[in-house]
Design a protein that fits this description.
Blueprint: E1 4-9, E2 12-17, E3 20-24, H1 39-61, E4 70-77, E5 84-92, H2 102-109, H3 113-119
Antiparallel strand pairs: 1-2, 2-3, 4-5
Length: 135
């Protein structure tokens, strides 16, 4: 997969891929306009939404309604390092949701590809190339 990242102005940075555009911006206190989420917020949202895809699929395959299910993600950071120390995903279900599926919901959310990549991170290769401007 290839993504093209560009800079549409101000503190905005957008990613283009597969016919989609993910827009990001910085908060006003960080020099942006707050017109879109910050890149790190998009990253964090990818964790919860990825887990959600697996929970949704689990329920759909069993004919279980998802109307009243939600995932609450809580992020705890380390004040000294500024890094994330813990991410909690709480799968909230209605009282009518069958208890026999609680553990299976957790196992399905644990299959999240984003989470698995964080547990076994890729190597990064950042470099510069010179290209001629597009006319």
């Amino acid at each position: 997969m290839e993504m093209v990242i560009d800079f549409p102005g101000g503190a905005r940075v957008d990613a283009h891929f597969g016919g989609f555009t993910v827009k990001t911006d910085q908060a006003p206190y960080a020099g942006g306009e707050g017109s879109a989420p910050a890149p790190f917020s998009v990253f964090l949202a990818s964790i919860g939404t990825c887990a959600g895809i697996y929970v949704l699929s689990f329920c759909q395959h069993r004919g279980l309604p998802t109307d009243d299910i939600r995932i609450v993600q809580r992020v705890q950071g380390n004040r000294l390092t500024g890094m994330v120390d813990n991410i909690e995903l709480e799968i909230q279900v209605p009282p009518t949701f069958p208890e026999k599926y609680y553990a299976a919901l957790v196992r399905s959310a644990d299959q999240c590809a984003v989470k698995k990549h964080l547990e076994n991170p890729p190597k990064f290769n950042v470099h510069t190339t010179v290209v001629e401007p597009v006319a």
